[in-house]
C-alpha cells in the first residue's frame, strides 16, 4: 500500500482499524504536512483560525456586498501544506490529487443538500496544467459536482498581489442555464482562501441568478 500523498510504500504495519477507519493513508512524513483547523474556533465568515467571531475582513465584505461567505477550510496554509500544493498545482504532479481524499469526502457529507461547484480554471491555465487541481481532488474523493461557472481569460491569481486580487474584475460567467442554480444551495470549492475575492465573485454570479444560499469550502486557509 502506498502513501496517498508522496506515493512511497507504506512500510509500517497497519492495524485493521487504521486500514478501514483512518482519516488518511499517509506516511508519517506526509501526515505532518497537514495541520487541521479546529472549526469551533474559526471565523464563521472566512474560516480564519483562532477566532470564533466575525473577523474584520468579513465585516468589511458584509458591508460591501451584504453577505458573508460562510467559508470553512480543512487545513492551515503553512510551510507543510505548501510542500503538497506547490508540486501538485504548479509542477503538475497529478498523483498528489488524492492526498486527503478520505477527509474531503467525509467533510462534504455535511453538504449533501448542496450543489458542489469547483471554481474553474481559464482555458489557458487548464491547457498548461492539464487538469483542474480542485475538481481532480473531488474526483479522487468520489464527490459529484456541477461545473456551474466558467472563467474568463484573465491573469492567474497566483501572480497577483493582495491589493490586485481585491480590485480584480468579475472573472466568471455562467456555464449552465440558471435553472440549474435557481433556488439551489451551492457550495463553491477552491484550493486556498487568500483574500476571498475570487469566492465572492463566484457567489455574486450565483446569487444574481437565483441561488438560495452560497457557501464555500477550501482546502487551506
From TrEMBL:
Residues in Phosphoribosyltransferase domain copies: 133-220
Organism: Enterococcus malodoratus ATCC 43197
Superkingdom of source: Bacteria
Protein name: ComF family protein
Family: Belongs to the ComF/GntX family.
InterPro entries: ComF/GntX_DNA_util-trans, PRTase-like, PRTase_dom
Coiled-coil stretches noted in the UniProt entry, renumbered to this chain: none
Amino acid at each position: 500500500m502506498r502513501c496517498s500523498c508522496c506515493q512511497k510504500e507504506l512500510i509500517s504495519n497497519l492495524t485493521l482499524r487504521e486500514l478501514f477507519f483512518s482519516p488518511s493513508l499517509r506516511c508519517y512524513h506526509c501526515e505532518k504536512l497537514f495541520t487541521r483547523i479546529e472549526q469551533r474556533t474559526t471565523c464563521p465568515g472566512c474560516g480564519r483560525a483562532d477566532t470564533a467571531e466575525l473577523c474584520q475582513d468579513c465585516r468589511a465584505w458584509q458591508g460591501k456586498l451584504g453577505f458573508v461567505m460562510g467559508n470553512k477550510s480543512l487545513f492551515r496554509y503553512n510551510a507543510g501544506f505548501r510542500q503538497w500544493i506547490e508540486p501538485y498545482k504548479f509542477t503538475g504532479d497529478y498523483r498528489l490529487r488524492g492526498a486527503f481524499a478520505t477527509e474531503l469526502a467525509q467533510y462534504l457529507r455535511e453538504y449533501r443538500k448542496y450543489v458542489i461547484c469547483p471554481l474553474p480554471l481559464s482555458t489557458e491555465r487548464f491547457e498548461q496544467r492539464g487538469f483542474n487541481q480542485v475538481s481532480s481532488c473531488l474526483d479522487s474523493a468520489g464527490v459529484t459536482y456541477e461545473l456551474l461557472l466558467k472563467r474568463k481569460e484573465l491573469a492567474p491569481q497566483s501572480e497577483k498581489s493582495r491589493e490586485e486580487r481585491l480590485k480584480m474584475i468579475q472573472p466568471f460567467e455562467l456555464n449552465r442555464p440558471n435553472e440549474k442554480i435557481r433556488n439551489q444551495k451551492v457550495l463553491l470549492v477552491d484550493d486556498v482562501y487568500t483574500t476571498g475575492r475570487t469566492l465572492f465573485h463566484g457567489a455574486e454570479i450565483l446569487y444574481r441568478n437565483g441561488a438560495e444560499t452560497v457557501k464555500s469550502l477550501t482546502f487551506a486557509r
